[in-house]
Amino acid sequence: MFCARDIEFYNSMSLVSLKFKKQIMRILVLSVMTLFFLSCKNDSKEKKEVIQPTKKPNVVLIMADDMGFSDLGNYGSEIKTPSLDRLASEGTRIQRFYTNTICAPSRTSLLTGQYPHKAGMGFFNEDFGVPGYEGYINKESLTLGEVFKNGGYSTYMSGKWHVGNEKPHWPLQRGFDNFFGFLDGGASYFDTKPLLKGPPSTAFLYEGNEVYNIDKEDFYLTDELTTRAIDFVKNKPEEKPFFLYMAYNAPHWPLHAKPEDIAKYKGKYDAGWDELR
User: Fold this and answer.
1) pLDDT for 232 beyond 90
2) Catalytic site residues?
3) 32 compared with 84, residue with greater pLDDT
4) Which end of the chain lies in a sparser environment, N or C, as judged by fewer CB atoms within 10 Å?
5) pLDDT of 238 strictly over 70
6) β-pairing, 59-63 with 242-247?
7) Strands 154-160 and 59-63
8) Which of 8-22, 29-43, 142-156 has the lowest mean pLDDT?
9) 177 with 157: CB under 8 angstroms?
10) Could you tell me the CA-to-CA distances from 155 to 9, 74, 112, 201 in Å, in that order?
11) Which range, 24-33, 41-50, 102-111, has the best average confidence (pLDDT)?
């Protein structure tokens, strides 16, 4: 290390040539810089030794379709949502999210973190043949499935896709290890037949890339999506964390609820929405 006394010695060398004095100063400066560099390097090593790798968390992302901001119990709803209220109380409640004009562009922004037009979904899943309206998430935009998969996660999706009709743009082709759900914009909660006309609604439910036929008398779409999502997680590789994207149809039209759930709220809305709010 160098101190003020060394500098005084340098300044007092009146009989030494200016050229020699400059050489000494260069040596002093280089020496100080070298010591500083070595000190920083040692600090960096020490810090690296202290930092321990953290275990990657499992991530569950739930999307409710066309739901009002205050339709959850934890945001003041008259509807009882105890499971979601518990998730909110044990996690982080976010109070602002920018939705786009319709559902497909909104879910595109959620899946990619981008403006929908940049990702190719300026409208529904229809290709208009112009940039920003391709009707599917373009290859320039990574989905959450692709990002988590690249990060060493098992990736699963259960529910409504609605961001690409053709097979190259389906969930398994966009980063998800497994998928159970439907590809189009709406579905009946009770009937396993297609609700909308035309492709890809010629088939309603898919498991992975294959059509999935269900023959159940007590079929209810919300329950089926939940059950399949739980199965994905139960059967995942033990050594991997998981990312699960739950994109429910509920409460998107046709607003099908079970009779016993409807009975709970009999008379609740008789006074009208303006009084209830």
Assistant:
1) yes
2) 103, 162
3) 84
4) N
5) yes
6) parallel
7) unpaired
8) 8-22
9) no
10) 69, 28, 15, 25
11) 102-111
CA dist., res. 188 & res. 219, Å (int):
10
Give per-residue burial for 113-134: e unless 16+ CB within 10 Å, then b: ebbbbbbbbbbbbeeeeeeebb
The model scores a pTM over 0.70: yes
User: Which contacts (CB < 8 Å, 24+ apart) does range 181-186 have?
Assistant: 181/157, 181/205, 181/206, 181/225, 181/247, 182/206, 182/249, 184/125, 184/160, 185/103, 185/104, 185/124, 185/125, 185/160, 186/249, 186/252, 186/253, 186/254
If you write DSSP's letter for every residue of the chain in order, what string do you get? ---HHHHHHHHT-TTS-HHHHHHHHHHHHHHHHHHHHHHHHHHHHHHHHH--PPPPPPEEEEE-TT--TT-SGGGT-SS--HHHHHHHHHS---------SSHHHHHHHHHHSS-HHHHTBSSSS---SSTTBSSS--TTS--HHHHHHHTT-EEEEEEE--S--SGGGSGGGGT-SEEEEESSS---SS--S-SS-STTTTS--EETTEE-----TT--HHHHHHHHHHHHHHTS-TTS-EEEEEE--TTSTT----HHHHHTTTTTTTT-HHHH-
**Cβ-based neighbours of 98, under 8 Å, separated by 6 or more:** 109
Tell me the chain's radius of gyration from C-alpha atoms: 30
Q: Tokens 């190719």 — which residue?
A: 120
Positive/negative CA dihedral, 255, 112, 206, 133: positive
